Amino acid sequence: MMLRFILNRLTLLSMAFCFWCMPPAMGQQFYARTEYGLQLGTSTYFGDLNTNYGLHFIRPAGGAFVRYSFNLYIALKGMVNYTKIGYDDRFAQNEFQKIRNLRFRSDIIEAAVVAEFNFFRFQTGDKYHRFTPFLAGGVGVFYYSPYTDYQGVRYNLRSLGTEGQNTGLYNNRRYKSYSICFPVGIGIKYWLRPGMNFSCEALNRFTLTDYIDDVSNTYVGIDKFVPDADHPTVAAYLQDPSMMPDGQKLGRAGKQRGDNATKDQYLMLNFTLSFQLKTYKCPANEFNSWYDNR
Fold first, then answer.
1. Residue 264 · residue 47 · CB < 8 Å
2. Which of these, 16, 63, 66, 201, has the minimum number of CB atoms within 10 Å of its CB?
3. What is the pTM of this model?
């Protein structure tokens, strides 16, 4: 009798323990703080060739990211992105730029870390905290290499030194193929189903370079590029492809070619889809700190 009583009590205790630690029901499921996602959208550039924030050259953008949520309001996202940017003076609204006739394209490869600050509590799987607007800001590094086409051939503008970088007289105008950027913007998050989150975000990249478009300072004069007047170089043409009505060139030495008072920028508008994996650890472990404000 005593043995049967003990066995019955042990069975009840085992069932209670299993029930306590079993995977939560639909409304009580727990998800890891880390989520993995992809993003796809568009990009554009603002700088010396696009001074009025025109949208004539928009190209696809995409990347991948990992987001870690510290709590229901603050998250940190690491991401890598690729896009192509560019612009043409023919899109400009003023006559000077149309005559200047500059253009460029550049691939952008970016790695950045961004902090996100939710306006509302956001918790995947919780129907009462399903969406939130958010602010985002961070820092990153990106690769760029402005180029253009001339007579059907692609030329790297940085290596041509279109603002006198290769003459030995304007070493302060040399620039590297990478720079720092500061993504800043807004977005909105929404969970589609528990563990599957969607967001839309617009992040503008303020940068520390004015040469994303290979334009920043003054013309240095065509004589710096023409060792032989009968055989002008590609650099001689691309540094000043201007087309004035009287047939003269715009680029006299010392004349303004770009605006070095401001740095170049580029913007990405992305739609993201991310996933959080389920976890079935008992709430007495790490989840107390995650759900203590519910």
1. yes
2. 16
3. 0.84
CA-nearest of 84, 94, 258 to 162 is: 258
Q: Say how far apart CA 189 and CA 197 lie, in whole Å.
A: 7
**Alpha-carbon span 164 to 255, nearest angstrom:** 13
Identify the three-state secondary structure at position 225.
coil
CB 206 within 8 A of CB 182: yes
Among 89, 111, 87, residue whose Cα is nearest residue 98: 89
CA–CA separation, 265 and 183 (whole Å): 10
pLDDT in tens, 220-271: 998 888 877 667 789 999 999 998 888 788 989 999 999 999 999 999 999 9
Distance CA 158, CA 147 (A): 8
H helices within 123-246, ranges in order?
157-160, 234-238
